[in-house]
Design goal:
This protein is of the alpha/beta class. Helices cover 54% and strands 9% of the residues. Helix 11 links the parallel strand 4 and strand 5. The radius of gyration is 23 Å and the shape is elongated.
């Protein structure tokens, strides 16, 4: 984890639903801007055990008290304790997501999916919620390259489509957490019937990932990033960017289709 610019106040708010009465006592101590002390001194002052303090740090997404006190002291020393310049924090969160993406994107899987896109004229993109919004971006971009793309946004429709799709169709499933059991069953059924079905997700251990033809891992949102500070579809859009870039790089001629769609707007 990159510690710089992490906002303690947001870390507390994100984890608040998991807090016990003891956790709230610890959080209140630091929100009151009390001085930095050893774990034993903190335990005595707050009236909790040292183990409770360690568990508290883990609940807010840190490894130990040392990491927490680094952040805490940094924000005590700032002009506005327990806060930060909003642009600096947001830029750091963007950087964290980019760093994750750098380490998890598999170029071999990108190549496999882009070749599958090249082989198929009809593509069905399955995704709900924010993933469906990313699916609309996929449709817009690859549609302008000459592909027929349909975005399926609810599990009932996915279950309906699973039995009428054939090996002529390509399915791309967008699901950041990949924890929807109904979608997992659909993915398993599709691949069992020989239909290429690729998953884009941040969860490498999901049932969907185990059943899909291949899984393209993207960045996850965790901690305070999940409070809405970063749009939930961003990791999906970044993965789609890489697919699009690689696809166009494989066949530069496809970009002519995109250019041709600009013609009506030039009149």
């Amino acid at each position: 984890m990159v510690l710089m610019n992490k906002d303690i106040g947001l870390l507390f708010e994100y984890a608040r639903s998991k807090f016990t009465t003891t956790d709230n006592k610890i959080a209140d101590y630091f929100l009151a801007r009390r001085p930095v002390k050893t774990i034993e001194e903190l335990a005595t002052d707050i009236g909790v055990s040292t183990a409770s303090i360690t568990r508290f740090c883990q609940k807010i997404g840190l490894n130990n008290l040392k990491e927490f006190l680094f952040l805490y002291q940094e924000q005590l020393d700032s002009a506005n304790p327990l806060s930060k310049p909003e642009n600096d924090g947001l830029h750091q969160d963007y950087f964290d997501v980019l760093q994750q993406l750098k380490h998890c994107l598999d170029t071999d899987v990108i190549d496999q999916i882009t070749h599958a896109i090249a082989r198929h004229q009809i593509i069905h993109v399955f995704g709900t919620g924010f993933s469906a919004l990313a699916g609309a971006d996929f449709k817009f971009r690859f549609g302008r390259l000459g592909k027929f793309v349909e975005v399926v946004q609810d599990t009932n429709s996915m279950q309906m489509y699973q039995d009428i799709l054939t090996t002529d169709n390509l399915v791309i499933v967008l699901s950041l957490n990949a924890q929807n059991d109904d979608m997992a069953k659909v993915v398993k059924n599709l691949t069992r019937r020989g239909i290429e079905t690729y998953l884009i997700s941040a969860n490498p251990k999901s049932k969907m990932s185990q059943s899909a033809t291949a899984t393209l891992l993207t960045a996850s949102l965790h901690g305070e990033e999940r409070t809405g500070m970063i749009s939930a579809q961003l990791p999906m859009l970044m993965a789609i960017d890489h697919l699009y870039y690689h696809y166009v790089s494989l066949d530069r001629k496809t970009i002519k289709n995109w250019v041709s769609t600009e013609a009506p707007f030039g009149k």
